[in-house]
Amino acid sequence: MATRVDPKELPTDWWTAEQCAAFLGISANTWRSYVAREQAPQPDRMFGRSPAWRPRKIQAWDVSRPRRRN
Predict the structure, then answer these.
(1) pLDDT of 26-62, one tens digit each?
(2) What local confidence, expressed as pLDDT, does residue 50 receive?
(3) Please, which residues bridge with residue 45 across strands?
(4) 69 confidence band (pLDDT: 50, 70, 90)
(5) Does the structure show a pLDDT above 90 at 68?
(6) Is residue 2 predicted with pLDDT exceeding 90?
(7) According to the model, what pLDDT value does residue 66 have?
(8) Alpha-carbon distances of 16 from 34, 46, 59, 66, 70, rounded to whole Å
(9) Angle, to 10 degrees, between the axis of helix 17-24 and the axis of helix 55-64?
(10) Higher per-residue pLDDT: 30 or 65
(11) Secondary structure string (H, E, C) spanning the chain
(12) What phi-psi label fits residue 6: left (phi over 0), alpha (psi between -120 and 50 degrees) or beta?
């Protein structure tokens, strides 16, 4: 699993799929799969063909998302 990036190191206005993934400590492909399967929030905005999310939305989703239990 990738290492989580501190949100202070990321932009404060919009996050790309890569930045969402970095914050969560997962690959960008995994993040895109979550979004495609509607297991993660849909983008708040599109910049051309590039989806973008508000950081607060992703942070709130991360707190409430189900976790794998071992």
Answers:
(1) 999 999 999 999 999 999 999 999 999 999 999 999 9
(2) 96
(3) 52
(4) low
(5) no
(6) no
(7) 76
(8) 14, 10, 14, 22, 30
(9) 40
(10) 30
(11) CCCCCCHHHCCCCCECHHHHHHHHCCCHHHHHHHHHCCCCCCCCEEECCEEEECHHHHHHHHHHCCCCCC
(12) beta
C-alpha span between 20 and 27 (Å, rounded): 9
- For residues 41 and 23, the answer to whether their CB atoms sit within 8 Å is no
What are the tokens at 58? 């992703």
Cα gap 42→6, rounded to integer Å: 22
In order of 6, 28, 70, the CA distances from 22 in angstroms are 9, 8, 23
Cα–Cα distance between 12 and 1 in angstroms, integer? 24
